[in-house]
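About this split. The held-out portion is used to measure sequence recovery: a designer receives only the structure tokens and must propose an amino acid at every position. Recovery is the fraction of positions where the proposal matches the reference. Here is one held-out target exactly as it appears in the evaluation file.
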């Protein structure tokens, strides 16, 4: 079975990256994780990727004079690795429309809210402050509108009395780890079909 060559972009511990790598161990999973890229050299997730035999690369955004120059270096590396799909897993950089257009329909992101609610940062704090009864997470295709692309999968989590942003985040993260591999499998299957 040919699998879709996938890059995972991280900035930190990469817990969603780990969930994707674990899912891709299955022989029938349609995506193969070929590289993990971070914009931060101290991202803990790089150690996990390297320990699992996955190519890692640090492309430090601070080393480039502009967002466009950083993204050009990132794009060049991904293409050199023959990447077909990109999964953002805690990648804390807003990507430009120009970069997205080069990978149109092939970039996934996981977001810790039930989109379109609570786009951007501090999702759990905002949900609790609003008295929301339900929170959750969404996997969506990346478009130039921040957290605005088509939603592929969502999972709901009840907001419990006494929840803090941290306790809510922990329960949402469990669901992120469950649905992100499902969404990547969907995208990978679509890429494989387009190849044939």
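Reference sequence for scoring:
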């Amino acid at each position: 079975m040919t699998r879709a060559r996938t890059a995972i972009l991280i900035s930190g511990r990469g817990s969603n990256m780990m969930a994707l790598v674990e899912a891709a161990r299955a022989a029938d999973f349609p995506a193969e994780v070929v590289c993990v890229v971070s914009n931060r050299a101290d991202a803990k997730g790089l150690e996990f990727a390297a320990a699992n035999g996955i190519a890692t690369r640090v492309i430090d955004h601070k080393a480039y004079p502009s967002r466009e120059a950083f993204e050009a270096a990132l794009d060049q590396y991904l293409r050199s690795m023959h990447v077909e799909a990109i999964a953002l897993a805690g990648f804390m950089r807003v990507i430009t429309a120009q970069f997205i257009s080069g990978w149109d329909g092939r970039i996934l992101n996981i977001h810790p809210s039930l989109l379109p609610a609570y786009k951007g940062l501090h999702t759990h704090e905002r949900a609790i402050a609003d008295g929301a009864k339900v929170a959750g997470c969404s996997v969506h295709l990346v478009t130039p509108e921040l957290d605005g692309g088509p939603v592929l999968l969502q999972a709901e989590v009840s907001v419990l009395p006494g929840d803090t942003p941290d306790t809510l985040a922990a329960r949402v993260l469990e669901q992120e780890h469950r649905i992100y591999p499902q969404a990547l499998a969907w995208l990978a299957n679509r890429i494989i079909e387009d190849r044939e």
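Annotator remark: The radius of gyration is 16 Å.
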